[in-house]
């Protein structure tokens, strides 16, 4: 790579890597220029807008991280590390919200029926049958309530 007829001061073993990196950055720039960001943002719901914003911020900060590395600056000691961590925490919050939406919902009526049937007590059901049979017996006046003992004739 030459600039203004002078050879730049870098190891020539990384020519292929630098060329690949330059072409990748150029491809990203052209893709970003093609995106009608405002039109896309208005069509998305708020959660998807947040996801897109977080992805964009994370991507730009990651590219800045790479830039710092190419300049010989340790990014782990730079403020970019805290910024990337902050963005990751927001990404985790958005993921939690998305997972909450996908989680199973509780049908309270069905749950109450399951619990009621699981707590079935046979004595309670038998007492219901007895009370029902007593009501039926009371409603029939022809049937004697109890038998009288036989009397002997002498």
Please render the helix and strand layout as text:
Blueprint: E1 2-3, E2 6-7, H1 15-34, H2 37-43, H3 46-70, H4 80-102, H5 108-118, H6 122-139
Antiparallel strand pairs: 1-2
Helix pairs in contact: 3-4
Gross morphology is rod-shaped
Name the poorly predicted regions. Answer: 1-5
Strand segment tally: 2
Major beta sheet summary:
2 strands, antiparallel
Q: Percent helix among the residues? A: 55-70%
Estimate the mean pLDDT confidence: 78
Major sheet strand order:
1-2
Total of DSSP H or I helical runs spanning 4+ residues: 6
Distance between the termini: 140 Å
> What is the radius of gyration computed over CA atoms, rounded to a whole number of angstroms?
40 Å
Sketch the topology as an H/E string, one letter per element: EEHHHHHH
User: Strand fraction band?
Assistant: under 5%
Structural class designation: mainly alpha
Question: Please, could you describe this protein's structure?
Answer:
The protein is rod-shaped. It has helices at about 15-35, 35-45, 45-70, 80-100, 110-120, 120-140, and strands at about 1-5, 5. It is mainly α. Helix 3 (about 45-70) runs antiparallel to helix 4 (about 80-100). Strand 1 and strand 2 (about 5) form a beta hairpin. Helices cover about 70% and strands about 5% of the residues. It contains 6 helices and 2 strands. The chain has a two-stranded antiparallel ribbon with strand order 1-2.
